[in-house]
């Protein structure tokens, strides 16, 4: 599978790259035609910092108290908090960065984390958002705990808004012309007998 990998470079900065594998992959919500590997963007300091700078450009005029990070994006979230506090309306703001528990697709905040969300302006950060289900669920969670969603950012995503909250992305499905996503029971690859190459989640992929 690794031999099929191609690199996709961000239009706004060629220092940010993700790996793309074409095939048949199973995610939590769907089957997809491509595996999007963002390990470097989430794990390597220099690339994570660059990703954060690109996101920060979109939120210079957006007041933010807390960043909630999903899908192992906490390093990016920490850099993003730093970038936002260096200028704009968040100058010298002490922005919190937290990661909630996710159980049955629902966000859970323990009592010690709730004060960082209740009555706070919250930016949601995640790695992928192709269907919008993950972001929608997280925004519902933010509101449930008394927070005010200020925006959402994702490394790779579809073209949508959720609850009137804009979603900023670095890469989109339009960057992969042949990208397709299907419900489990509507997957044409399954119907054609094509085996699943790997199971994919926020930690990476496991070949089958």
Give a brief outline of the structure.
This protein is an alpha/beta fold. The protein is built from five helices and 13 strands.
Give structural notes.
The protein has 208 residues and is of the alpha/beta class. It has a single domain (2-207), classed as Rossmann fold (3-Layer(aba) Sandwich). Helices cover 21% and strands 36% of the residues. It has helices at residues 39-43, 45-56, 74-84, 133-144, 188-191, and strands at residues 6-10, 13-26, 31-37, 66-69, 96-98, 101-103, 106-108, 121-129, 148-157, 167-172, 181-182, 198-201, 204-207. The strands form three sheets. Strands 1, 2, 3, 11, 12 and 13 form a six-stranded mixed sheet that branches. A five-stranded parallel sheet has the order 5-4-8-9-10, with helices on both faces. Strand 2 (13-26) and strand 3 form a beta hairpin. The radius of gyration is 17 Å and the shape is globular. The relative contact order is 0.19.
What layout of secondary structure does this protein have?
Elements: E1 6-10, E2 13-26, E3 31-37, H1 39-43, H2 45-56, E4 66-69, H3 74-84, E5 96-98, E6 101-103, E7 106-108, E8 121-129, H4 133-144, E9 148-157, E10 167-172, E11 181-182, H5 188-191, E12 198-201, E13 204-207
Parallel strand pairs: 2-12, 4-5, 4-8, 8-9, 9-10
Antiparallel strand pairs: 1-2, 2-3, 3-11, 6-7, 12-13
